[in-house]
Structures are given as C-alpha cells and as structure tokens.
Protein 1
Amino acid sequence: MSDKTIPYKIYLEENEMPRQWYNVRADMKNKPAPLLHPKTHQPMKAEELEAVFCKELVKQELDDTTAYIDIPEEIRNFYKMYRPSPLVRAYCLEERLQTPAKIYYKFEGNNTSGSHKLNSAIAQAYYAKQQGLKGVTTETGAGQWGTALSMACSYFGLDCNVYMVKVSYEQKPFRREVMRTYGASVTPSPSETTEVGKRILEAHPGTSGSLGCAISEAVEAATAKEGYRYVLGSVLTQVLLHQSIIGLETKTALDKYGITPDIIIGCAGGGSNLGGLISPFMGEKLRGEKDYHFIAVEPASCPSLTRGRYAYDFCDTGMVCPLAKMYTLGSGFIPSANHAGGLRYHGMSSVLSQLYDDGLMEARSVVQTEVFEAAEQFARVEGILPAPESSHAIRVAIDEAMKCKETGEEKTIVFGLTGTGYFDMMAYEKFHNGEMADYVPTDEDLKQGFDGLPQIG
Amino acid sequence: MSDKTIPYKIYLEENEMPRQWYNVRADMKNKPAPLLHPKTHQPMKAEELEAVFCKELVKQELDDTTAYIDIPEEIRNFYKMYRPSPLVRAYCLEERLQTPAKIYYKFEGNNTSGSHKLNSAIAQAYYAKQQGLKGVTTETGAGQWGTALSMACSYFGLDCNVYMVKVSYEQKPFRREVMRTYGASVTPSPSETTEVGKRILEAHPGTSGSLGCAISEAVEAATAKEGYRYVLGSVLTQVLLHQSIIGLETKTALDKYGITPDIIIGCAGGGSNLGGLISPFMGEKLRGEKDYHFIAVEPASCPSLTRGRYAYDFCDTGMVCPLAKMYTLGSGFIPSANHAGGLRYHGMSSVLSQLYDDGLMEARSVVQTEVFEAAEQFARVEGILPAPESSHAIRVAIDEAMKCKETGEEKTIVFGLTGTGYFDMMAYEKFHNGEMADYVPTDEDLKQGFDGLPQIG
C-alpha cells in the first residue's frame, strides 16, 4: 500500500525532546471559566487551593496566559527513562483495512504504569518534593493513576497514600501489588482511616466504594496530615499542561517527516490524554495557522460531551472539591460498569469543555463491544494489546480509515494510544466469551444526574 | 556520578538493524554435540526432524558452519513493529548504588508478549507459513512463549494450538486471554485431545500437569494432524540463532558510542535469551579478537549449569523428543515451585553447555528472595517492573556493581532484561507479604534426576 519511506516507529532523539510544556489556554480567546469555591461560589483563590494542592501546581492551575512553561531538569531526566514515546505508523493496520488513509498512533504504554498518567505524576511528585512535603495522597479506580503516582513518588522518595476503590482493590490485586512494589500504601476505600470513610461505612456497611468516596478520603487525608497534599491525575488544567508533552513530541515527530495530520483522535474521560495530545495542534488552530479535525471519543455509557450539559458542577461525588464549569452528566450520575474504568467520569476538563463549546472539536460516543472488536483487530495486526480506554480512539480511527476507503481520500489520521490492557484481561475474557453487554443511558437516567447540578449565580 | 553524554536509552535507527542473524556455532572449535534419535541413539537426520519441525528450521538447527544467515524481509518488517529494543543506561540505578560501574541493560519487554520470545516466534511462524502449513502446535508453562507464538501466528494467519500446563491455565487466566485475543486455541494439559494426554489423565486423574506432559501433547498433536508442525521457544539451536538479534543490536548500539563491556550477564533457563545476547560477543572471544566475562545466572532451585552433569539427556519428560548433550539435572528432575517459571527447565542449550564446558563463561545460581529484592530495588529507580526470570540477571548485575564500589573499578556491565513482570504480580505479592521461601535441592534430590539419565554409547 505504501512505500514505507516513513519508519515504522518514529523515535525522537533525547535532544529533540520538549524542554517546555505548552499551555493551550494562553491561545484561547474564550478562557475556561474559573474554579469556584464549593460553598461561597466565588472564584477559588490561590491560598485556598494551596491548602489542598502543592503551591507550584496551584500556580500552573491558575495561569491562563503563559504559553510555555519550563520543564524542570529533574522531570526531563525522569522523562528520559521512558520517553520520547514512539509515534508509530500503523502500516499493518492500513494493510489489513486496505485503506488509502495513513494512520499514526502515539503510544504511551511503554512504561510500567502502562499509560500516559506517568507524565503528570512525575511532575506533581516533583513539585511536592520541591515544596518539602513528606508525601501525597490520591485516589485510584482502575489503578493506572495510582500506579503512575507510586512510581513517581518512589523516584523522589515521597510517601504515597493511595485510596483505591474497594471493588478494584479486591478485583485487581495485580495493580495493587504493582503499587506496593513501588512502596505505596494502598487502602481500600471506604476505610476507617478517615472521618468521611467512617461515615460512609456506617451509612452503607458492605459498600464496595466509589471514585467519589475515594477522592473525599484522599482529600481529607491530605489536609489532616502535616506535610501532605492531594494530587489528581486528570480533569485539572495542570494535568493537561503536563500531558502536552504527548502532543509536543507528536508534532515534532510529524514535522520532522513533513507530515500534516488531517484528523486527530483521542479517548476522553477526564480529558488528560486528549487535551495533552491535541494542545499544540489546537494552538495552531486557535492562532489561525492551520486547521485540524479533532475527535474526542467517549463511551456511550458515560457521554459527558455528547449528551451532557455545559454547567458548573462538583468535580467529586462528595462535593468537597471546587466547582468547575464543564460538560457534565452531574456529579450524582452513576455510569454503568463499562470496562473502560478510566473513562467513567461524569465531567470533562474545563479546557476541553470550552473548546468543544466553541465548536473547535467534534465528540463521538461508542459502545464497548464495538470498542473491543476494534481493540482485538488492532492487537492482531499491530501487536500491541490496547487498554479498553485507548481502544475508544482505535474504534474511531478505524471508522475514519474505512470512510477513506470508500471515498478514496488519503487522509492522515493520528490517534493517541494511551496504554496497554495487560491488567484488563478480565474484560477481554468477557468479550471473548460473548458476555459483554452495551449500556446506553436513557434520557430519564441522565435527568437524575442533571437534577443534582448545583444552581450557580 | 556521570556526565550523561550517553543517552538514557540508545535506540538504533531502522536502517541500523541487523539484516542477518549470527550463528555462533560457526566460530566454535568444539561444536555442540549432535542431537540423537531417542530410540536408536544415532544422530538425527534432517528427514527425521522434518516430521516434527519445519523444513527450513531443521536446516538452521543442523547448520553449524554458516556464520551469518539472512533474516527474511517479512521477519525484518515484523521486527520493526517492536524493535530495535532500547539499550538503556541505568543511570538511576548507578546513582542509587553509588557505584563507579557503568550499567546497561538491553530491554526486551516492550511488546505485548512481554519478553524476548517474540524474536524467535515470528521466525518460526514465518517458516511454517512459507512451507504452506496450516498451523503449529506448542506448549507453554508460564505463558510467555505461548503469547509470543500466538502473536506471530496471528500476524501470518496461521492456526496456533497451545497446550498450557493446567495449573498455569487455571492460575494465569490473563495470559490465557492474551493468547485468545490473538486467536490461539489454548488447551489445558493434560487433555483428552491427545492419546498421551488421555493416558496421563487415566493414570493420574486430577493432575495439574507439567511442562513435560504438555510438550508430549503438542508434539503428538503436530504429527497427528495434516499440515501442522511443532515449534519450541528455547533450548534449540535455531532459537539461539533467532535470538542473536538481541546481541547484534546490543553490539551495534555499544559500538556506536565506543563502549566496550567488561561483563555481560543473562538469566539462563533453556538458554534462549543468554545465548542470543552473548552470541556476537562470544564470537569475538572465540576468534581471539576481544575478551569478555560472561555470567549465566540460574535459580538455585534449578541449577543445571552450576550443579548439573554434562551428558546426553531427553529434552522432554515424555522422552519423545531427540536427545541433546547438555548440562542437565535429568529429565526426571522436578524443580520446586520457583516463581521464575521460565527458568524451571532441567537442561540447557547444547551450544551454551559446550561453551560453558570449554570454560568460556561463568555460571552462578541465586535464591529467589534475593532475586525479588533486586527486582524491587531495580523497579523503584529504573521504573520498569521486571519479570522474575530477568531479575536473576539484575541480581548479579547489582552484585557486580557493588564489587566495583568496593574496588573502585569503573567496569562496564551489560545485562539482558528479558521481560516485564505484569503477569507475575502473585509472586510479587508473596514477596511483599514475606511468604516467599527459598529452595535449594540437596545432593540427594539431584541424585534422583541423575539416576534417570539415559546411558549413551
């Protein structure tokens, strides 16, 4: 199909790696709305945020004018252990699909955390260390973020307390043990270690926990202990900033070979991967230099962009975190047991929400059986066994490539392959055994979530 | 500790990748002894081997004079999907150990099979396809080889039947599902699908199986069905040939930066990784061009080199495969439940056995708790979570680096990091919980295995 003048895998040299993150907000005319205090509904001040988050990270969270922010040398050195990540030309997939489209994917799974989460974990751990903290707390659902953070904390000698949703703690012992290998303490949530945990256990004995509850416990643990702060792996704008390394590397690699993508695709849960991948390209679009077609892919079971409302909402179920303006299904919305745990979040990054609301990108939702079909097709020809989350992007990349086959267009498609599915084999097993169901919430289901939205201003 | 003029990860360009495998036997004065027929004890003829193995692979197995053998283009293209693998400078480990030694590792885990096994699997699948076969059969214990072969067969559209030791089939469902994702049929062994399986089930109802039994079933299945052959992931000389890609890439990367290793270390089970890594360096040593200190590391629980006998023995417990002259504990030796399943083999590649017998390399055995200590130490600073097998090499690399600390010598140490431990978290859990024991066979234990050695000549 092609002459293969482009290598299968484009690796940048170390000296070509980005030395600065890119802050897409600097180029946005319509800035994302500010975080609001959950009680007063006034914009959060830096001092208020610093009680929960590291000082430097608060600065990054609030800075919507500085386009480029230096990556500290220690972080760049850590990046060098597993980055630059390869930009892969999917020759074998193209061949199998018999499409004239040229497909590339940026693969973030070649590290032990198994995903892109490490890019922000190491930055957050670094700033915590710089501030002289003893440790950090966080929550984890499927476990990718917790694993990444435990690796980062291990590197800097920080204590790492992970509240892991109890059902995952029990059903995903392997993830738990990876975190323990990196010296993290992992507590099944809800637990007796926090007041909020105790209250929940009293009210719901035998509960298997939820991400919202784990967040509340992690925030309480961070603020209750001297020398600790809370860190979060997605949704926040600082996370998108750190994840811009994905997009910057992708752009450098493409530029090196004179390739201009037509379509850029990413899966979207809280937005960390998608935001990081598209940021520098979106910057060009915002500045009127180039145009790209961006596609956010979300599960049909948790369709915050495609069926949500653009409104202020709580970031957590416990309603202790600040309010963010975002596309949301309501913090009370409980998504069905979709196997892409990393995409089961009721809201969406406020940056991506604003860009979407401004008509700068498209969103699509897909059902999980079709996602696993794409995952398996991809694995068989490209070798990599993808995470269910990442496979949402694969699904749409294949769909777009098949459209090219119909029209004969030689479009260049780039998608983000955020991670591997080694710890998701139970989901693959269900798929193989024909036991996987699809779930699409009814309008009535969604109404319940919307009814719980806070009334602002 | 160092000025870091060497990159953290040395990646070769695609055009620097080897175009030929290197056959170390060509440079050996004392050639490995020939395979013998299990019944007649006469050297196996090509025609006899071709009943079980693919024609071209038999040719490679028997060729001990051709130094370089072309890698077919299709195999090179597949290699490009996951190779060249990085040669990593372990700056962080050096820093943690405060050693003047310079440590490098060749990392083979960045592919879905999680290990170096794919290097030979794709070659064997290719030759099966070339011969017009419908499919191949094999056995797998821990599952790395089965996974690699299923990926390779999927790529070439070959049927892949894997006999998986029943206890692993049940305890490692994730591995099984990875193989199924790649379209392989996975049968718990012993099974009712073969005569030998039926016999064993009748004699030992409720048995959890063994590698020896699985081999016998796979061989029977291959010879009973039209258009099938049997393939094997280690021990055989053809496998070492394919795995020479590891050593060739390592050497090219080192040469590129003017680095000469003093010590080269690899874990040793059947010998596929160690043989592949050291081959081109050993070639230099055999030709008198350079000298290196090679160290084979094996588990103390299965010490074929350090405590075995150099004798003709069966390659399988079922005694249906040819006899090979090798360092062996006897095909009847049953190693304890060490967590490095890939190293639980009673014998050793005949090539490595001959080299060892000629005094060209050292062998050491280590106990598993010390191996897991090294694994965890490595993971925490280098990020990669290593497989228990690979961690044997890490253990000795750290030991050697600590000796350098004492003596002040700035030795250059290279070791093979064959794979990742994502599917070995049960073993890590045991280690974390202090439930891991060490086992070293007594001389009496070994005697039983030696007593079963066949009397040749």
Protein 2
Amino acid sequence: MAEATSRRIRFAVIGVDHRHIYDMTGRLLELGHECAGYWTDGEPRTLAGFVKRHPHIPRVADKRRLIEDPTVALILTAAIPCDRAAIAIEAMRAGKDVGTDKPGCTTLAQLAQLRRVVAETGRIWSVNYSERFEVAAATRALELVRAGAIGRVVQTTDLGPHRINRLLRDAWYFRHDAVGGILADIGCHRVDSFMTFTGSTDAEILHAAVGNFANPDDTDYADYGEMVLSSPQARGFVRLDYYTPDGQASWGDGRFFILGTDGYMELRQELDIAGREGSDHLFVVDNKSTRYIDCHDAGLPYYPALVADVLDRTETAMAQSHCFKVMEIAMQAEAKATRLGFLAR
Amino acid sequence: MAEATSRRIRFAVIGVDHRHIYDMTGRLLELGHECAGYWTDGEPRTLAGFVKRHPHIPRVADKRRLIEDPTVALILTAAIPCDRAAIAIEAMRAGKDVGTDKPGCTTLAQLAQLRRVVAETGRIWSVNYSERFEVAAATRALELVRAGAIGRVVQTTDLGPHRINRLLRDAWYFRHDAVGGILADIGCHRVDSFMTFTGSTDAEILHAAVGNFANPDDTDYADYGEMVLSSPQARGFVRLDYYTPDGQASWGDGRFFILGTDGYMELRQELDIAGREGSDHLFVVDNKSTRYIDCHDAGLPYYPALVADVLDRTETAMAQSHCFKVMEIAMQAEAKATRLGFLAR
C-alpha cells in the first residue's frame, strides 16, 4: 500500500472500454499519483486514445498482476458496464478501493452484491458521477446552493443531450444488457445531481420512460429517456437523448436548472450556444441581481478527496450510502420505464 | 354586425380583472378595429392600468348594453376566471364571437357547456394562449419546426416561471375556485405549446403535481406545478412557478426547448439572462450550425386571423377543437395533480 505520510498512492486501470477512463486516469496523474499499469480485454476502439494520452503506462496481460499488486491502493475501471461490478468485487476482495466509471453496475443483483462486499471488506466503491465531479460550474453552484443563495430548492430540471458518436462506439454500446439502459447509464449522473443539489438522501421515481425514435435498426438501444423524481426535499425532472446534431460544438448542450424559493440558477456545462466561449457557464438570479459567474477557479474536489479517503478511510469525496443509492434509483427508473417508439415494437 | 367588406369590426370588453386585457384590447385597436366600450365588476386593481392605456374607451354600467349591441361582433373578456365561461355563453347566445383570456374556464362542467353552446350557435370561442400568440419567437420557431428544421419533434420542455406580484393582484387570485389552479391557469399555455409544436391533436397527462412551498399563509394557492404529457407524436414536460426573484428584469424567464431527432431549438421568450437585450430570443441547432435567430419581424398572426375568422366564419387563428382540447387537458392535469408542501396539510 502507498504510505499515508507521502499522501501519494499507486493505482491501476482495469478496462478502458469507455473514454471516461482518459480523464479518470489523467486527473490522478495530474495530482502526482502513480499508475502501476493497465489491463483491458481485447482491442476496444477507445484503446488508441488511452495509449496516446498515457503512453508511459504499461499494459499487463493478466489483470491479476494489478489486482494482487501490494503497492496498488486503488483500482480504476471503465470496462464494459456489465463487467464493472465483478471487477470491483474482485478488487475489493483483494483489499483495493475502487473508482469506477458510471454506471457502476447494470443490475440490482450486482448492486446488492457490491453492498455486501463493501460491508464485508470496508473498501471504497466510488462511482464517477462525472457530470458533477468533472464540472467546475457544478462545484461553484453547489457551494452557492448550500450557502442558501436561492432559498429552499424546490425543483431541478436536468437536460442531458449526447452525441451518439456511432463511429467511436464498440458494438456493446448498443446492447441493453451490456450498458444497463439509458436511465441507468447516463441517468445516474442526473440522479446524483438531483439528490446532491436538493440535499436528498433518497428519492422515488414517479415516472420514467425510455424510447428509440431515431435509430430503428438498433432495436435494443434507447436514444431517449425521461424521469420524474421526488424526495421529501424537492422534485426533479431529467431528460436524456442521443440526438446532438453535428452543427453543435460539444458532445452535448447539458443544462441544469435549480429552482429555489428565492432565486434560481442555470448551468450550461459544456457550452453556451451562440454565446460565450468555453465551458462551465453559471447564471445566478436572486432577489438582488442577475449575474454570470466565472467558475474556472472553482476546482474539482472529487479526485483529491477520493485519494484522501483511500489514505484516511474517510468518506469526504462522496458518502458511500449516496453512491449506492444513486445507482439503485437509476436502475429502478430503468426497470419501471415505459418503452416508446421503436423499442415498443 | 361589422361589414365584411370593410374588414373592420367593432368589439367590446367584459371584465378587466387580469392585465392580459390591456394587450388583448390594444392589439385589436392597433389593427384598426373599434372598441364599443367596456364593462367590469367593481374596481379591480387592474382597472387603472386599463383606463390609462385606453382612456377613450367608455365604461358602461350594464354589460348587456355591450352584449346586445348589434354593431358589436366580438366580446373580449378577462373577467375573474371562474366567471369567464358564463360571460362567453351569454355573449355567444347573443350572437357574438368571444375572445377570452386564459384560462377560458375553470371547471370541466363549464367546458362541456361551452362546447354545447358553440355547437348550438356556431360562434367562435377563442382562448388567448398568449405564451404563443404574443411571442414572436414562437411564431418563427413554429414555422421552422413545421418546415422540418429539426426533424421529428420527440419532446418539449417548458419552464414557466412567474413573478407573484402580490401587490398587483386582487384577492381572488389566491383562491383555487376563482382561478382553477396553476395547471389550468398558466398551465393551459404550455399544453397549447406542447400540442402545437408536436402536431398533437390530443394528449394524455402521465403525471401532475401542484405545490405551495413559499406562501404558507395562502393555503388555497399553488406556487408550483409540474406535468408530463404524452401524445402519439411526442412527450412533454411542463414546470410552472411563482418564485421569480426581484433581481430579474422580466415577469418570468420562460424557456421552451424543442428536441428533434435532427436538431433542437431553445426559446428565451422574455429575456436572455446576463445576455442579449430585449425579448424573443430563438436559438436553433441543427446538423449544419448553431445560430441565434432574430424574430422581431416574425409577427403575431393570432389577432388578424381571429378577426378574419369572425368575418369569414373560418378557423384560421386556431382550430376550435384544439382550443377546447387544450383547456380540457389542462383541467384534467389540475384535477389529477398530487398536492405538495403547504397544500398537503
């Protein structure tokens, strides 16, 4: 294990099947932590990008070399989603903490097993809800909400458009059993945001639907999803899609509206269409003024906090119970969703 | 009756209890039509503003003088919402067409009677869904959607914040029986937009809720509402509130997002927070580009079309069936809504 005195850890990567692994790895390297190596199954389309960004990280042929390495404290995984739970469980049973790409698992049975293994081993299982952890505007907005800037939060509306990027995706991406479905996969981000910004520790899915309206040949793939959430604290609406057109500069014009009794906020996470340059746009309207807030110094506290948790056995990056609950709710939404369009055939 | 050859009509106003009557009257006057007079019950807070804008319009003591005036073709009403149906029915039975502020009625029983009277008399009953009829950006957006600019419309998300403006409101405004509820009152605008922009002739309410989270002393008043709509064509989400803070320049930062399979649009109807000056902001993103569209020349076709319909006995301003169906759906949503916050006590 890494020595707590140095505050540096060694980590390893198991599965690079989603591009999120580029930044998950990169953030830890930027913080000065060391990657012992990576393993991945076969030659996913994402592999070249990983090697290009991180050419110094050695590939190993047997993932047990990494999982059993006594100098490795943390395993990162962005394997095919349905395989992530088994990798996490193997790693935790070998004494490692785990940082996993979202969705952290794809079935409620996997989640139940993950909860048991965390309870048995005392290890950390942390899902990278990157729509919050990788967005500086979310860091700043959360500080403001928690300081009471807009009064009581009554509702959040979360629009999550994505580009389908078919040529960058491996075949598994279009299989429901591999991904867990649109509400579980990209929906878990939004469940995390709803619960975090409204201060909710649980939520009920009042309504959920998934559909395929633009990809009739992919009969197992949802290109659209929606859900309505409710907690004792607030209400939430989430809309997800894969229709981002080619005339748009980012992978998706994500918006997050936070409605309070004394004001509201809007996050334009990726871009400000026909407006300002760059990302991380935050607008705040309260009883005093309407203002644009620069968030570039807001920071991304997740990764440093995760490493501190690994070293100190704390839960500062995210409560373990929240991490589980978000995946549980997202998968419940997926399970109860009405199937629309080509999915209903 | 006005002579069709001149294309001018005479109209009258019965009830000025909502500020919408200022513009309803003003638009017809701007088009060169003549107002025979107005009647209103008592001294509503809105009266001074009406007289200030339209000082030449005579007040009459008995509304029957206007309803029975053979030179008057059209009655406008912005009476207290629960009284509008009776005024409309009296006017139609006297041979007049009716242009009513929204909501056009407050109960399903009133609506059934309105449908019968329209069928019996052949008169026009037109509800002023002003979030579309008074918004030039909506005119232009609808042209583009109908021309196929963003492919198949899959979903609309409609955020309708309002300032409570307590000092401008009469007491009836806070009584459910007078207004019909938030989903019926300001929700009918959004049902109209959903159906119009998605090309739907009917819709189902999948989910609805109303709440009071900021006005605990007004135990009959909802300051929050939400609904999920579904039609064979598309899905819709609507969120309404009365939390617009004082630091915001308009009565409400309305947003309308239209999601298509080949692109999307955003309307910022009233203002562009911390952005461009003025109103009627339309953003279009398609497979070619992301662009801001100036809508100031788009026009507001509703009032000229309504007058043409009065003269020609046509339905160009709005199909009568659509006008009824919108109110029906909005009132159904109100009836089935879960009651939250202080309303749930």
Protein 3
Amino acid sequence: MESRRSFLRKSAFGATALGIYPLGQLQAAAPQTERLRVGLIGLGLRGTNHLRNLLLRDDVQVTALCDTDPARLELAAQALKEAGQAKAATFGAHEYSYRDLLAMEAVDAVVISTPWLWHTPMAVDAMKAGKYAGLEVSAATTLAECWDLVNTHEATGTHMMLLENVNYRRDIMAVLRMVREGVFGELVHFRCGYQHDLREVKFNNGKQPYGGGAEFGEKGISEARWRTLHSLKRNADVYPTHGLGPIAVMADINRGNRLVSLTSSASKAIGLHNHIVAQGGEDHPNAALKFKQGDVITTTLTTARGETIIVTHDCNLPRPYSLGFRVQGAKGLWEVDGSRIYVEGKSQPHRWDPAASWLEAYDHPLWQRYGEYATGAGHGGMDFFVMHAFVESAKRGIAPPIDAYDAAAWSAVTPLSEQSIAAGGEPQHVPDFTRGRWIGRTPYDWLKDTF
Amino acid sequence: MESRRSFLRKSAFGATALGIYPLGQLQAAAPQTERLRVGLIGLGLRGTNHLRNLLLRDDVQVTALCDTDPARLELAAQALKEAGQAKAATFGAHEYSYRDLLAMEAVDAVVISTPWLWHTPMAVDAMKAGKYAGLEVSAATTLAECWDLVNTHEATGTHMMLLENVNYRRDIMAVLRMVREGVFGELVHFRCGYQHDLREVKFNNGKQPYGGGAEFGEKGISEARWRTLHSLKRNADVYPTHGLGPIAVMADINRGNRLVSLTSSASKAIGLHNHIVAQGGEDHPNAALKFKQGDVITTTLTTARGETIIVTHDCNLPRPYSLGFRVQGAKGLWEVDGSRIYVEGKSQPHRWDPAASWLEAYDHPLWQRYGEYATGAGHGGMDFFVMHAFVESAKRGIAPPIDAYDAAAWSAVTPLSEQSIAAGGEPQHVPDFTRGRWIGRTPYDWLKDTF
C-alpha cells in the first residue's frame, strides 16, 4: 500500500482530483467562495489533525489560527509554512481571543476543536459572526446549549456542521447504502455506542498525552486536562454522537422521523478509581475522589416511527474498542461485533454471512472514489470525508449533511441521560428541535457521489 | 464422534456412571429415595425430550404420565416400553387430570412441560401435594404467580426447581467458573436475551410443528397452538429466563444481591404480520390481526450491587440465533457475539482473544466429567445437566440450584417489562421475593463436581 503522500505526488491529486467539480461547473444556488478561507479554533491533537487535512486541499486557504497554548499555535504555524501556504493570523492571548478571529473578514468558515464546554459558545459566536461553523463532537452539554445551536442557526441563517467523523466510516456508509436500498427492509431496532477504554486518555503523567500516570486537570495535559472532569462530576452519557450519529442518519432522524424519549441506567463507577490506584497507589490524592460517571451507561431511545435505539457509553474499563453497531430491520440485520450480516432469502437460513462481502458489494460511491486517498487522513479515512463534506458545503454556502438540528438532537442524549439516571431511570422526552418540521424535512442525499 | 447410544453401550454408562454416588455413600441430610419416582406432566416435544433423558437413568423410575392429547400419551408409553421399563399410570382425560397424578403415592417428583399458563398452577399444586417440582421455563406470567411459587414453597416446605437449561451450557458454565475465580474482577455489566427467530414455531400449517403455514391457536399444532397468543396479546418480554438465568447466577441474584428495578422499551411490531402475509397472503384472516408484542424488547435491570443487566427479547424477525451474552467486570469481559474474551494483563492490550482457549482452560468440572455423554441429550448437552441436577436434588430432598425465589425473580421480568412498556418506559420496582433474606443467603456451589 503506497503512502498517502506518495499517492498525492503521483496523481497530482492535491491539485485536481480534490476539487472534483471545478467551481465554474457548480450548480449550487448559494453564493460560492473561490477558495474557502478557514480559521481553526483549537489546535490540540484533534485541531492539528484537521489542519493537516485542510492543508492538503487546494480549495482551502487557512487564514487564521487560534489556541491559548502558544506551543500549539507555533506548531500549527509551522505546518502552514511547511505546506508552502501564506502565514495565517494567530490568536490566543486569552480565552475569548477566538472572537477576534471571528471578526476577521478573511475568514469564511471555522473549525472548532476545543474542550467540550467551549463547543456551543464558540459555534454560536461563529454563526453570529456569519462564519460557516464546523464543530467537533459532542456539540452541546446541556439542553439549553442544544437550543442555543438551533436558535442561533435560525436567527442568523448561518449554517453549522457537526463534524461527526464516524458517519463517514466505510462500513457505516456501506450499511447506510444497504438501508437506503432496502436490503434490511423496514427498520426496527438499532444498537450503537462508544465503547472505548479511555483510561489512558483521562489520566497521564503531565508530560505525555496518553497514560503514564494518574493525573488529570491542572496536573494533566491534553484531553486529561479537561475531559476527565466530566467523568468526575456527571453521571451521563457524555459522548453519544459517535454511535448515535450514524444510526440517526439511517433512521432519518429530524427528516421524517425523530427521537421521542429515552431512559438511561448507569452501572457502578469503579473503573477510574481502580486505574488511579493501579497507576499511583492507594495514597495518590486522586484515589480519594468519587467519580460520578457509571462505568457502563445504557440509554434506550424511542423514535416517532417506532424503532428503538440502544446507545452505550463504556469508557472506564479495560476492553477493546467497539462502537457496537447493530442495524436491524424486517428483512435482516448487520452487527459490527462479529462482523456479520443476515439477509432473509439471501443468507443461508439461520446462518450469518461474514459482513465483508456485503460491505464490499455495497461500498459507498464516495469511498470508491476517494477511499485510497482518504485512508491516510486519520481514523481510517473518516477524517478526510467529514472535512471534505464540511469544505464542500461551506464553499457552496448550503446546508451541511449534519446540521444544527442533528447536533442538538444527538447531543441532547447527554443531559437527558443524566436526568433519567438521576431519577432512577425515569423516561425523558427528547425535545423536537425542528419545531415540528421533521415531518416534512427530507433526508439529505447521502448516496450522491460528491460529498 | 461416536453417537450417544453407542457411547452408552460401550461404557455401560447407563448402569453405573450416571449414578455417580451410590446411594449408600450419600451424605445428604434430607430423606433419600432409593430410586426417584417421576411423573411427567405435559408430553409435547419438550416433555418427551425430558422423558427420553430420564429413561436413560437407572436412578429414576417413570411412574406416571399426563397429557390431554392421547397421541402424545401413547408415544410416551411406547418410549417406556422400548426402554424396558414398567408401565406407568397415565392421565389426561381433562385439563385437571394432572391432579390425579399428583395424588399418586408412587410419585416423588414431577416434571412440568406444559403451555406457560399452566406452569405456576401445576407447580403450586405439585408442591401442595408434596411432590418435588421441576418446572419448565418461564415459570410465571404475572407478579401474583411469582408470589404463588414463593409462597407455596414456603408454606409447604416442598422444593421446586426451574429447569433453565441454558444455565448448564458449556460456555456459560466455563464463564461462571471464570467469574467465581475472579478472572473478570468485580462485576459491572451484563447483557443477555432471547434472540431467536421463532416465526416457524409461532405459525405452522396445523400438520407439522414448525412452519409451512400461517396458522396458530385452534388451527395450529404444537407450540403454535398456545405460544403465539402471548405475542398477539402482550407487549412484554415473555421469555426472559434463557438469558437472565445464567446472568442471575453469575451476579448472585437472591444470594447476596438482588434485582432492584427495570425499565423496558418495545420496538414496533411488524415481524409476525409480515410472516403471515408471506405465508398466507394479504387475505389470510390472520393478516388482519394486530400483534401487541414489539419485535425487539429491551429491558434494563439494575441490581443491589450496582450492576446493570440488559435483557433482549427478539423473536419475530429473520435473524440467526444468539443469546447475546456479555459478562463485564473491572478486569475484562466475555462477549458471546464474536466469541471473544479480553482480560487485562493477560490479553494483548486493546485486542480480543478468541474465547475458545479461555473457555477450554476454564471448562467446568461437570462438563469435564459428563460432557461426552451429555452432548447427545438435547440442546448440545444442557438438557442432560439440568435434568441431572433436578434428579440429584430431588433424590436428596434438598434445595435445588435454581429455586422458587429464582423462578419468581427471573420470571417477574415478564409482567414488569409489560408494565414499563405500557407506561412509556417508567421504571418498575422488582419485588424482593426473598423478603429481605437475600442479604444472608449464600450462593449455591455451582462449581462442585456432583450436580
């Protein structure tokens, strides 16, 4: 397998293939930008990854960078230089310096990759400033924030896209195609979640981003600096969108269907305490902390069309990674665990098919087109596609495939799961963030081969 | 692999190895029976299977048979004759003829394998008659019935055993051993369920037990005659014990732990209607029926020790069989889907081990002892073990491994899931059928190598 850069060199892909539709041929109604001028807010590991992918595109100019950590800012400026791009404006003197970035005329769109508590405020400010906003997951941490995103989008007419990369995973897109082509029949039930041992993300030694110690917050670095506090203080599914995002698209949530209610239950919380003791001993100050977040949180959602969706959050225990997808309909089902598919009348009765041949046969047009290139972009290629969709939507000034209503509905699982758990599993209504318009909104055409 | 009968012939196993502990050497405190005299109530496919397994034992004499279908009764009598056993008394003139069987002095124990609605009444009558009762799953269909089992056991001092065969599955018993030996650490989360495409069980052509038509009730035969009505009338997990039974034992339910509450959600119900139309056409009278039971029902239980248990009922859609087990603790987990195990410090970091080598290393003593013999007994051997435990417990007159409290707690999921679903997912308290004694009851020693 040749490396991504060598592929780029050989095919001169950066200069032509990425700008699939030369701008002159575009049919989009909205105003277009010759070259999308992007500002990045947040240049940690995630933001820097987005930066590197953007720098490979000839339809993007990175005009502004913002981070409160001068070292990260310097690293990003260096990346621009290496890519032969013009120097970008830089911001980061204080926490609200991003507003100076948003005030720049030479910024059309922003990519926000900051700690969760900044996501909604920054996306709201971006839309108010008329900047097409790309927002990392999860979008919002309270119901009020969910509404902030929707209300600001509606008040300003400016778009935001939730940058949920798992929606672009190759198997997910193949299964989405199978769903759209009716392979599984009428849909009935879904499973998904975020099952990822994050103990070495939540704790480090203050020197390396992953592991090596029992520190977090002030004494930790990278994600441990802020993410771990959510586990300490909130008994909630704080990270629902990697699982729910792909399922919501398959289920036409906000587009002919909607999330109606949920119940949520949390197991005991022992994983993070055990990890602190294992890393730092019984006497480590963090060993005295009582973490609120249950190790396994299970949320059951119901939809207007009568499907159920189980969403799992399982990040504090030793376990291999799995998003635990299941997509089940009247004619068959896909399960990611065991990588298997059953389709009535096609599979041998009562026997699983290996998923691989099905996923290959239904490979998504976008992956057929860009797969080889995308694979180097991070997270197995998903990161290329999500950024591609963002850039192409922003260039055209059109609604993105994952919009403010999606961001709000998916992220609402965090506060609602918290409420349900606190109330012993009481069902919670999921607000209709579309204000009733879900009945007439039509699904985004995820099967087109552009973005 | 040699057949079961040839194994029996070669090793004369029937005459010696099955009566492991010659009666004279038994240390049990309770009164013992030289040869357990068993009556069978219900001789459908399930009861007949139990009969055939009992006839292979030299410590059992089948003294009475009961079924309201003369053909089934005749078939059973024939099986006795072929086994060279003395003729048994037969009953079945009417629905309550089983009470005449219970009145026989020459019956020590009964095996009840009848339609669900007869389970509790018959087990209650059996205990009142002083007969050690073996009851097929599920035990009870309402909360009152759950209490009936417990109250009758306590009032009479007579035992009942729930004949949950999955508790004796080879992988389950190996994982139980791993749990008991601490391999997974402190337990946190479980998954299980009954995911079995029963459409051809629920509908047949009135001539064959499985499939071939869209008939049930009066026009169906075998299970379709009675089981399908539960899907038509009740939106509930009507069959929870195959999944919950094994998990409840691992979690020490009623023995140091208990089920505290549950929430339940049902998907839409389309599978059975679709099946009727596929089998009998749009104009078939059954195509007009509205089935209440959601195709996928998900129940989340909480326990006194802070674990959560997800129980799934998924029987109306095309899908391969899986009981969907997961057993997850502070040190690792087993998942039956994908057949994989992860144990921190033993497995490669973030990588699954194939379950097989673990399951082999922790093979249960009972399976090591009887595995080769058991495999022919039905359902991959489980049926031998569950009947073995029943017979050995009844012979000794001691409490069985799965008792009236277990039967009540596990079966309570049916009415409680129904209540929760009807109330939009409202949490339901699970009654403490032990009346507080769960705090002091010690787990049954499932790891001993006798039964």
